[in-house]
Amino acid sequence: MPRGHYSLHDPHDHTPLGEEHFHCATGPSGWRYVSQITTPTGDHAGSVDLTLDDLGRPIRLELHASAWQVRGAALEGVTWVRTDPTGEHATEGNVPAHAFTGASPAFLIATARLLRPALGAGAVRTRLVAFTPPVLAPRTLDQSWALVKSTPHATDNGPLIADEYQVNDLETGEQHTVHIAGDVVLSAPGIELESLESPPSTFT
Question: Where is the region Disordered (predicted)?
């Protein structure tokens, strides 16, 4: 069960945004990721609880940020309920998308797992619903993911494969690179892996 923490920063000016302390695990039915997010001063800022099925589809999502809450799942596209900080009002949403995304590294693992682009086979397109702090307002976006490189690294537990993905925002044309090993993000815009207590899990 990988356990560690990521540092989070603004991808444009590198302003520190806090840390995300996580643990995750694969199982016979899929993958689960749980994390607690803190501010640069160490205060609690939110949490992520994401469960995928064996095909990479989100079967349970729970996000918290600034007293906002989102619960969602893949159901007739993706469906969610977003609750305001007072808890008095909840709004439901549903769009014909494939999965969710957001600021957490969990969503990069989830999207890579869902799409599974083959090396050298070109980009795979997907539609996602993004929830980003601090208010977790939904936004639908289209991306393409291409696996451009897989590099093996020798470890005490056998070779570890680091995959490099090129991710394109199909609306803005913005491109960025994501490096993933198993179920851990090594680096991505705004995300750096700072500690890891056990090796990444590998998906079968």
Answer: 1-20
